[in-house]
Amino acid sequence: MSRRFTLMNADLDFDDVQGLVRFGFGGMHRAAFYLVRIKDLAAVRSWLVNAHITTARVLAPPPVTALQVAFTFEGLKALGVPREVVEGFAPEFISGMAGDASRSRRLGDLGANAPNRWRWGQPDRSPHLAIMMYGKEGEMEKCEAEFKGPSWDLAFEVLERLPTSHLGEVEPFGFVDGISQPVIDWEGQRTIHGDQLTYGNVVALGEFLLGYSNEYNEYTDRPLLEPSNRGAAELLPALDQPGKKDLGRNGTYLVVRQLEQDVRGFWQFVDKAAESNPEERKRLAEAMVGRALNGSPLVPRQDKPIPGVGEDEKDRAYNQFTYDSDPSGVRCPFGSHIRRANPRNADFPNPVKGMISHLLQTFGLGRRNLRDDLMSPTRFHRLLRRGREYGPGLSPQDALQPKPADDAERGLHFICINSNIARQFEFVQGAWLMSTQFNGVSEESDPLMGNREPVPGSPCPASFSIPRESGLRERCDGLPQFVTVRGGAYLFLPSLRALRYFATQD
Amino acid sequence: MTFQSSFMVVAPLDVKRTDELRTLLATMNRAPGVAAPNNGLIPFGQLEELHFARIVLLDDQTLDDITTAYRLPRESYPLYLAFLADFDGDVGPFRKKLIAVARKGLEQIFSFCTDFKPGTDLDGWMKAHEHRPSTMYNNWIGRTMQQIREEDVLRQAVQMRLLQNGSEFKKSSPEEIRRVAKDFVTREVNSQRLTLTPLGKAPLAWRIKNLLHLIFVPVLLLILAPLFLIYLPVFAIQLRRREKRDLELAPRPRADWVDGLARLEDHDVTNQFTAMGSLKPGLFRRWTLVVLLWLIEYTTRHVYTRGHLARVPSIHFARWVFIDDKKRLVFCSNYDGSLESYMDDFINKVAFGLNVVFSNGIGYPKTNWLFFQGAKDEQRFKYFIRRHELPSEVWYNGHSGLTNFDLLRNARIRSGLEQQSMTNAEAVQWLQLL
After folding, report:
1. I need a labelling partner for A144 at 20 to 30 A (CA). Which of A252, A423, B194, B419 fits?
2. Is A130 helix (H, G, I), strand (E, B) or coil?
C-alpha cells in the first residue's frame, strides 16, 4: 500500500503548494500579517488572480520577499464559493476558533482569554482573509506596496495589520525558540504499518498537507468535487478517489492566535519565587519551559539516533532525546511547557521486545509504571509551527525592572499548520497544554500558557510542580497568567490551484 | 470490602411529552447536562455510595440505516427513558434508599413513561424495568465512594503537612519524611480529624463464587473447543462474506447534533458517553456479539479489575446492554479527559476491542477479520461514534474532579502509609506520589 503512495507523493508539485508549508521564511526577518475583510468582490477576485504567491519550490537565489494567502470559512462564503463545497471542509474550520462556547472551553479560551475580549477573530470581528507578507530587512516597505498593488484599498477593508518583530533566535520570554519541528515525509518514504514502537520525528505528509495519506494511512476529509463542477476541471484529482477533483490537495489549515506575553510578569514572578537568587531564578524559569535558556533540553541526549533528528550537530544537541530516561520527571518536570506540547512518546509506553511482549502489551498486560498509557501517542498530534514574535525585545534582566507607563505590548503570533485541526492543534492545546490532568499532574495547567481558571478538582490551577530525586516535589504556587489570547482564527491555506478556483467562483 | 453494583431502568416514554420531560430534567442541572448534587428532583449528593448516575432518552438517530444498508423496513421501537446508576453495595438496598430520598422526584420523572400510573409501586416498577448489562466494567472492583472520599482527604492532609514547608525536611532521609507523615496521620486518625475505614476483605461467599466463575468459563471453553474448532472455518467464511458485503454508514454527523453533544462535555475532568445502535440483521451477528460480550465480561471480572481496561486507564465504569430482544445495543461509559482524547484511546490503544463488538452494528467502518482496521479508519470511526452518541439529559459524578489516576495515586499514598517500613528507594517513590 505504502508503495503506491510513494510513487504518488513523488509527483508532488511544489509550485502548487504555498511556501509556508515547507519554509518558515526564516531569512526574511520582517513580516506583516493583514487580516482583511472583503470590500469589493470583483476587486478581490482580480487581486487574488494577480497575486504572486510564493510557492514551496526551492529557488536559487532564494526570494527576498514572500506572499501567502489564507481564508476563513466566512471568507470563502463571501467569495461566493458554493455552500456544498465549503461544507466539505473540517467542522472546526466551519465553526471557527471562537464560534462555539464548547470549543472555547476545550481550548482554555476562558476568563481573560475569552473571545468576547479578543481584539479580532470573535464572530463580529472575523477576518475573511489573512494576507501574510514577508521580506528581508530593507525590503519590507517596498514589498508591502508591491504586494498590495493598485487595487488593494478598493478590494479590502483592513481589520488588523499584525506587525512582527525579529528577536534573533529567542521568543519574547528570552528562550531560544523554533528549534524543534517535525520533519515532513515529502516523498512518502516512511512505511506506516501497524504500531510505531519508537518515537520518530518524521511525520506523514498527510498530517500537514491535505490530499495525502496521514499517520493512520488514511486521507483526511476535504471537499472533493465532480470534474463537471464549475472551475473544478483545473484542480488535481483526489489520490484516494481518482474520479473526483480535490480542492484540498496541496492545501492545509492554518491556526493563528495572537498571544500576548507578560514578559515582566513572568520574570518578576520567578524572581520573587527564587528570592532574587539569579541561579535559582534561571533554574525555575527553565523548569517551567522544559529547556534551558539556550535551548538545551533538560534531559540528557540519548545515544540512539531518532529518525528525523540530526540534520546537523545543533539539531542533535537540541532534539536527540525522549523522556524515557526521565520517567519520574525529576530532570524535566511533567508539567513543563515542552513536555506537555510534545511528550515524545511512541505507540507503547514500554519497549516491545518480540511478538509475545507485543501481544501482551496490546492487551494491556505488560504495564510497569504508574503513568503507563496515560498519554496518547505523540505522532498523531504534531504541529508545524510558523509563528512570529511581535513587540520590542526585553532581556530577562531588563524584565525585572518595574513596568514603565508606556510599556509596549509584546508576544507571539502563534501560527501552526496541520491538516486535522481537531486532532492536532485542538488536541495539543486542550488535552495537553491546558489540561489540569495531563500525565497525572493535578491542580496545574501549562505554566506559561495556563489561564488559571477553576476546573472541578482544581479550584485554583495556578501551581507548578518540579519533581525531585529526593522524593518530595517542589511546588511553586500562585502563578499569575503570563500569556493572554488577544485574537485567533482557523484558516485554510489553499494550493495555488484552489486559490484560482476560489478567485473565479463568480 | 463492598462491591459495586449498577442498575439501568428502561421504560417506554410518552413520545408526545418528551419536550416537557427534557425541560423538567434540565431543572436538575447546574451546567448543561451536569446534575446539581442537591437538585430538587433527585438529590444525588445525599446518596453517599453513588459513583455515577445519568438519565438519557434512548432516541436512536440511526433507525433508517437498516433500510439504507439492508433494504429492511425501519423498526418502530418505543422511545425509552433510561436511568442508570453505579454504586456501592447491592441493588435492592440502594434502590430503597434512593426512593427514600427522592420518591417524589422519581415519580414525577417516571410519570412520563407510558406504564407508570399514579399509585404504582415504585420499587417494584423500577425492578421490573431493569436491564442487566451483558458486560459491565468497573475500573477498580471493590473501591467504594467512602474509600475514595477518605483517601482524597488523606492526600490533601499529607500534602499540606509535607509540602507546605519545604526546608523542614532538608536534612531528613526519604524514609524519615515518610515516617513523619505516618506519625502525623496516626495522630490525626486518633484525634478523629481523619477517618480511614479499614478496607476489609471480600466476603468468603463472594470469593468462592468468583473463583468458580474464574474456573468455570475456561473449563466450558475447553470442553466446547472441539466444536469451536470444527465451526471455525465456517465462521471465517461467514464472517468474511459479511465483512466484504456489509455497508459502511458513517457520514459526517450534522453540525447541530455534534454541537448539542459538545455542549454537555468538559464541565468536569470526567465526562459521560452514551451511544446506541442496531445490530446487523441475522443470527450470525447476534450470536457472535452475545459470545464476545460474554468473553469480555469474563475479562472485566477477572483480568481488568485493577485500573485499566486493556490499555485504557481512563474509564471509570462502562457497560454494554442489549435492548429490544438483542436487536439493539446501548453502550455507556464515564471517562477522564475530553471526547477527542477518549476516541484517541479507542483508536490507538484498543481498536481491536471496539472492532470485535461494534462491527456487529449496522454501518460500522469496515473491519478485517473482526479485529483489524475498523476503528483505525480514524475519521469514519469518529463520525460513526458521534452519529450514534446520545445526549445525557442529566449526569451525576459522585467524585467530580478526581480522575482514575487520582484515585489510584490516593490509594497508593494510603497503602504506603500503612507499611511498617520502607527502603529509602521505596520511600522516594512514595514521596513522589504526593
Report:
1. A252
2. strand
Which of B338, B339, B356 best probes binding to A when mutated, by most A CB atoms within 10 angstroms? B338
List the 415-434 stretch of B: residues with Cβ below 8 A of A.
427-434
Name the strands in the sheet holding B135-138, side by side, starting at the edge strand that comes first in the sequence.
B135-138, B315-323, B328-336, B270-278
For residues A9 and A119, membership in a common domain is answered with yes
Structure confidence by residue, pLDDT tens digits, B325-340: 999 999 999 999 999 9
Is there a contact between B308 and A364 if contact means CB atoms under 8 Å apart? yes
Same-domain check for residues A296 and A251? no
pLDDT digits (tens, 9 = 90+) for A372-403: 999 999 999 999 999 999 999 999 999 999 99
pLDDT of residue B166: 65
Proportion of chain A above pLDDT 70, given as a percent: 98
> Would you list the domain boundaries of chain B?
4-142+202-397, 145-201+403-432
Residues of A in contact with B267 (CB under 8 A): 105, 456
What are residue A17's phi and psi, to 5 degrees? -105, 135
In angstroms, how far is the first alpha carbon of chain A from the final one? 40
Distances (CA, A) of A437 to A117, A118, B188, B337: 27, 27, 29, 8
The A residues from 283 to 342 touching B (CB cutoff 8 Å) are: 328
Contact A216 B313 (CB under 8 A): no
- Pure H helices in A164-262: none
CA B346, B352, B354, B359 torsion: positive or negative? positive
Whether residues A163 and A262 share a domain: the answer is no
Best of B164, B180, B338, B432 to substitute, by most chain A Cβ atoms within 10 angstroms, is B432
Residues A480 and A499 placed together within one structural domain of the fold: no
- A142: its cell numbers: 517596498
Q: Is B36 on the interface with A (CB under 8 A)?
A: no
Beta carbons within 8 Å of B93's beta carbon, 6+ residues apart: none
Range of the domain at A419: 257-487
One-letter amino acid at A125 equals R
State whether residue B338 sits within 8 Å of chain A by CB: yes
Q: Are residues A399 and A251 in the same domain?
A: no
Mark yes or no for CB contact A423/B162 under 8 Å: no
Q: What pLDDT digit, counting tens, does each position of B35-81 carry? A: 999 999 999 999 999 999 999 999 999 999 999 999 999 999 999 99
Residue B57: all three cell numbers together: 432518552
Contacts of B366 in chain A (CB under 8 A): none
Cis-peptide into A494, omega within 30 deg:
no
Q: Domain count of chain A?
A: 2
A207 in contact with B at a CB cutoff of 8 Å? no
| Interchain contact B308–A (C-beta under 8 A) | yes
Shared domain check, A295 and A168? no
Q: Which three cell numbers stand for residue A421?
A: 485541526
Q: Does B74 touch chain A (CB under 8 A)?
A: no
Quote the pTM value: 0.95
Nearest-neighbour CA in chain B from A335: distance (Å) = 14
Predicted local distance difference test score (pLDDT) of residue A188: 86
B166 → chain A, closest CA residue: A474
- Do A18 and A167 belong together in one domain? yes
- All residue ranges of chain A with pLDDT < 70 are 1-10
Q: Counting runs of H as helices and runs of E as strands, what totals does chain B give?
A: 14, 12
Taking contacts as CB-CB distances below 8 angstroms, the residues of chain A near B176 are: none
Largest CA distance in chain A: 70
